[in-house]
Amino acid sequence: MFPQFGATAESLSKASSLVFRIGTDAHLYDDPDDVSIAPLLDSSFDSEKAEALKRLLALIAQGEDVSNFFPQVVKNVATPSSEVKKLVYLYILHYAEKRPNEALLSINCFQKDLSDANPLVRAWALRAMSGIRLHAIGPIALVALSKCAKDPSSYVRKCAANALSKLNDLHQEENASSLEELVSILLNDHSPGVVGAAAAAFNSICPNNLSLVGRIFRRLCETVPDVDEWGQIALINILLRYVIARHGLVEESIMASSHPSENSDSRRELFSIPAPDRGSILVEVEPSEHIMRELMLRHYIEGPEQYSSRQIDAKEDDNGSNNNSYFTSIENNDVKLLLQCTSPLLWSQNSAVVLAAAGVHWVLASQMDMENIVKPILFVLRSSYASRYVVLRNIQIFAKAMPSLFSAYHEDFFVSSSDSYQMKVLKLDILSTIAAESSIPFILQEFQDYIKDPDRRFAVDVVAAIALCVKNLPSVAKTCLEGLLAIVKQESSIKHYGSLEGEAGVLIQAIMSIKTIIKQDPANYEKVIVHLIRSLDNIKEPSARALIIWIVGEYSDVGHIILKIIPVVVSYLGQCFSSEELEAKHQILNTVAKIVLSAQGEEHELFRKVLFYILDLAKVDLNYDIRDRGRMIEKLVTSQPKISHQEGILHVEPDSILLDELLKNMFCGKIQSVTGAINHFRLYLPGSLSQIVLHAAPGYTPLPQPCSLPEMALENRMSQDGIEAANSSDSSYEGSQSSYYDSEGSIPSPVDGENPDSGSESDVADNDHYMLRGANGSPDATAIGQLIHLTDTSIHDGTAKQSTAENNTSSATDLTNLMSKSALESWLNEQPCLPSVNSSADPSRERSSARISINEIEVSVKPKLNVLLEPANGNGLRVGYSFTSEISKISPCYYPSKVPTIVPMEEIDSLHPGDMARSILQVHFHHHLLPLKLAIYYNEKRHPVKLQPDIGYFTRPIAMDLNAFTKLENHLRGMFEYSRRCTFADHINIVDQEKGQSSLNDDKILLICRKIAAKMLSSASIHLVSVDMPILLKFDEVSDLCLRFSSEILSNSKPCLITVTAEGKCSEALDISVKVNCEETVFGLNLLNRIVAFLSSNSVS
Amino acid sequence: MLQCIFIISNSGEVILEKQLQGHRADRSICNWFWEYAMAQGGELSQLLPVIASPTHYLFQIFREGIIFLACTQVEMPPLMGTEFLCRVADIISDYLGGLNEDLIKDNFVIVYELLDEMVDNGYPLITEPNILREMISPPNIVSKMLSVVTGRSSNVSTTLPVATQSCAPWRKTDIKNSGNEVYVNLVEEIDAIVRSDGNLVKCEIYGEIQVDSNLSGYPDLTLSFANPTILNDVRFHPCIRFRPWELYQLLSFVPPNGQFKLMSYRVKKLKSIPIYVKPQLISSSGSCRMTVLVGTRNDPGKPIDSITIEFHLPSCVTSADFTSNHGTVNILADKRCSWSIGRIPKDKAPSLTGNLVLESGLSSLHVCPVLQAKFKIMGVALSGLQIDRLDVKNMPTQPYKGFRALTRAGEYEVRS
């Protein structure tokens, strides 16, 4: 209208928005990289850093990849400014997965922040640290988490609970048990906010460990109202699952009502729908509620195959017998409590909470009390548009299973013009489901208005819904038919043009609806059929005409009036055949054929004439389909026995009876409707995502099997929970470990197919300390091994000439402690007394355990040989490596730098097939977990390899006596102490072997000690301090067997103490608990994990 | 749990993305979403809130031209997704004083900081506006000026709000307010469906009690109604204690500071509507005469303000012209007509007359537009809900208490 004014207004608004933009970050978003970001990041002013980070954030927001700034950004994590810190965390978390190695750099800073006095800083650090998805971070984050789980600030504890599922996402099985423990701790928290977050973590970490809930069920129920809204959703879900698993379904509930007992007969009919003898009407009259309830039971509960795949009979028997055990009563205290504590949630402001609470009531509450949930969920319909749709989808299911529940509230489902098409359709479906005698007049009145809706798609659905209503309430059939006829009349008066396509749909649907209604009782609705026939002249839409013509054929023998008008109709059809569309032509052919076949008396001749007239026309039709059908019908009709009779041929062929039958079935059989569709309905728990998208989303779990959590198990679990969890996780841990620490697993695959054990052992013996060896599998190739670095092992064989001073001293101290077998015997007579960890310096003090020393332990200590290059990959060259505990002579010259460094080593000139060469490579690893990439050159070829550091050799053995050990251990208690449990099974074979040899000299327990000690010493560079052996009467049982090892970390000479305690039967796997005391948290934990890994892994021998 | 949140403008531009979990959701999902939205007819407000894309499940809400899109790959309560997005939209709009593309772009750092505090690992962390306000200060004119004058100023708080620790997370304990006052507002929306013959199909009121509390310390309030039985449905702010309501229909609560929605309620089966709208359509050979009369039906006792009648012309109408004896009529591009009346004059009944030209071939109009009425009545709660009294405990001095009421049209529809 006034373009110039519009332009002014636009510029005005621009100007005003400019004013508003002053002082915001607008310029940063608009031109994030108009200045160079890098120097700003290195600036010493916080404000400049913040600006740079904001620019980076703007680039992230716009979808650019700015991960190349990562190292510079990470540096800034140590800033004291909270704004910069927050921005850095935002950046790091966005890219942590992309740049894991650089993200590692920030770990130390996070750790520092974790002990900050400000809870907000602690929480940020924890969130950032756990957000870095890196396997190496796992153990460290776990420590941080366990610390934060006990934080005085509930906010930090809440963040810890959220972090649990982040760690769980890393799929580190070795952490699983500790995570579960933490979940249990946090679920027990006294702050409701933490409980809510813990419940969410529970759902993602151990959703099936419901016994964890059992102990605190009552308390959790009481906390529910105080938990924050999001936590409530997760928490009541757990509680519901627990109740079902523990007590089973509630007898009075809707879930149980579908159970066989009284209505088994009706169900049988429903489920055997395709049975030939069953009429369609019978099936349709069946209330669909029962099917829905049946389906609910089948789909809500775990293990649907158990319910669906079986035969119905079998199922009935089955359920009948189990009836009692599956059910509990509404009087059950737990059920009552849960229902009670979730009732107030129905008033929550949060629609998600309301729906979740309604879901609990839906499953558990008795049918009488179900009324409670109706008003709240209907009220949710008045909230945001998004929740409206989801709630309607759930109500749809509720209504199908229990229409009476909603029938009084039909007004709430009246369509408003602002609803989207999907919502209108949903409301319509619900309305036609819940329609009852009392409400149907109002609903039909509404429908009348809806038909005038400008959205014609919707009008079509409304017309279809009318038929549905009649199906449920046959009493309104008459009114509905009148209405439908009026629609037909009105619609047929409209000429259809391009933009009015939808109109044809309304007309067709109206006729279809009429068809569905009259099908139920054709004789009664004769007039309606006549009415339709009379409107044929006005209706131009081919599909609509085809439908009416079909109706004529189908009900040509019904009633009196139709019989009278049929001749006229048939003549009419004959007249207009040539001008019809394809669809209608088909129907005319069929209909007239049907009429001819069923007609009797004087009209018959007329019908035949018309038919043959039509057939003649059909033969010359443009459409081949019509021509074919015409010919076929002609053939069939002319070969009809009755006809041949008239023509004077008297013999009736036996075939013709069959043919007659066939014709009758083809043209005169009444249609049977198939209502099996409802069986393919998929149902998911109310309020779930799967219910909305109609397929099981990943992570969807139905309710657990009723009563799958027996009471006994529960009580047992209470006491043994921790242990069992630890055990189960350990066993799985072993499995994964072998693939993770690949190098170990692949040892027993030697080049030349020798017996693996003897092969590697003899190799080691032959080669003295030369751990690096090249062997050539293909005889005629010469290999040149090069550039492998070693930080080698040397705790092995007694022949070790080059072992270091430390190693010598360590064996020397071993010897000082050495006692003979007879010494042990002498201890056996001592009376038992306590503690095994004793600060007393005197080794001769009275105690129940004997301190022994193991001689010749070195013999059984084998170096750990890792494979660097497999012959298969290395063209026949095999390169192995192991670490020595020897201290590098040049080590002091290398102070820590960012990059791992390698001391150059000389080339190996040549290597003959089968030969081995050894050399020492010195490497400075930057981190005890990160592998080093190397390349081996031989035969002019480059072979990239990865050298995995072994944390066991990042220590050096230090000699100390028990006295010093215990003293040091007492200093390193509390947060410097980490322990884990695992099982040890290596000794079983040996013990068995010994049995066979019936060697009397060797004690089984001693053997075990030896075995454990050997394994420890061959996997880590540590010193065996002492072995405490229990004195027990039973010789085949071990308890409190305690081995102590000492070492110090190479890089900073901090002591690191290891205690291994074993328990169990000699002939079975032992329970081992490993404890590490070390000031360096991260290192200690990783070492602990490593020790547990190799102890629980099956040894090569 | 939620994997990622995108904020998308109504032209399909991704304004910002916030990854919530370790495994990132690629931005390409937005392209898929946009294509889907266009394929659905491009009406953004009518899109389904939960969409299953080939790779992700999407939750979306559309607010004032901005789409908030979240995606997940695992089962989670869909309402939790959409409800959370609503909360995000509310809070961002509250912080920025509205929602539009430019506002979000201009304050993207704040939006990022907010999102980071609101959600942790895809799981809602803090959604309580009062706590968020303490953690991240909203932009205001002072801070803007300050940042212009002094360079930069941080809006990130260095201390953890005390309220995160308490069992009443909506209130910090040590609030000191200079004002000592509390206002209670009844804001009601009247939903009605009227048939073309003037019969009332349904009429109900959706109401909210909005409280603006500026009280120091830790006050304990009790609000009672004169006629609580008329309340059909209720939903409460978490601060309301359940027991007193169950037993005595009393609202007993410790209020958050500032404005908040104390409860929402519904009163059903009302019998009277304040204004009548009478549409009349008479078709004759290819055109249709439309008249609409508007007037007061049951005088609420207070003036009815800013009355507007809106309706969509059916697609089979090719052209239309309207004249009214009061107010102005606008026909917008998408065949939406809006007749703004304002107040009903005393001397005459406003009427609208117009001639609709139908598509050729149609002799009469077979579909009927639905008229929506908008209006506002100050000072009246049409549901008849009456506040009996408001008791304030735990306060040294009695605060000033104010009560107000307002009724406006919600889904007020008249079928023709």
TrEMBL record, chain A:
Top-rank taxon: Eukaryota
Entries under InterPro entries matching the protein: AP3_beta, AP3B1/2_C, AP3B_C, AP_beta, ARM-like, ARM-type_fold, Clathrin/coatomer_adapt-like_N
Annotated SUPFAM superfamilies: ARM repeat
Location of region: Disordered: 722-778
Entry GO CC: AP-3 adaptor complex; clathrin-coated vesicle membrane; Golgi apparatus
Predominant location category: membrane
A single BP term in Gene Ontology: intracellular protein transport
Residue ranges occupied by any AP-3 complex subunit beta C-terminal domain in the UniProt entry: 820-930
Membrane topology: Peripheral membrane protein
Keyword Thylakoid: no
The keyword Hydrolase is annotated on this UniProt entry: no
Biased composition (Low complexity): 728-746
Keywords in alphabetical order: Cytoplasmic vesicle, Golgi apparatus, Membrane, Phosphoprotein, Protein transport, Transport
Pfam families: Adaptin_N, AP3B1_C_2
SMART domains linked: AP3B1_C
Compartmental location: Cytoplasmic vesicle, Clathrin-coated vesicle membrane; Golgi apparatus
PANTHER family: ADAPTOR COMPLEX SUBUNIT BETA FAMILY MEMBER
Physiological role: Subunit of non-clathrin- and clathrin-associated adaptor protein complex 3 (AP-3) that plays a role in protein sorting in the late-Golgi/trans-Golgi network (TGN) and/or endosomes. The AP complexes mediate both the recruitment of clathrin to membranes and the recognition of sorting signals within the cytosolic tails of transmembrane cargo molecules. AP-3 appears to be involved in the sorting of a subset of transmembrane proteins targeted to lysosomes and lysosome-related organelles.
Record-stated family: Belongs to the adaptor complexes large subunit family.
Name under which the protein is recorded: AP-3 complex subunit beta
Organism: Spirodela intermedia
UniProtKB/TrEMBL annotation, chain B:
CC per GO annotation: clathrin adaptor complex; endomembrane system
Keywords recorded for this protein, A-Z: Membrane, Protein transport, Transport
MHD domain segment(s): 179-415
InterPro entries, per the entry: Adaptor_comp_med_subunit (IPR050431), AP2_Mu_C_sf (IPR036168), Clathrin_mu (IPR001392), Longin-like_dom_sf (IPR011012), MHD (IPR028565)
Regions crossing the membrane: none
UniProt GO BP: intracellular protein transport; vesicle-mediated transport
CDD domains associated with the record: AP-3_Mu3_Cterm (cd09252), AP3_Mu_N (cd14837)
Major location (coarse): membrane
Compartments (UniProt record): Endomembrane system
Family annotation (Pfam families): Adap_comp_sub
Family: Belongs to the adaptor complexes medium subunit family.
Name of the featured protein: MHD domain-containing protein
Source organism: Spirodela intermedia (Intermediate duckweed)
Upper classification of the organism: Eukaryota, Viridiplantae, Streptophyta, Embryophyta, Tracheophyta
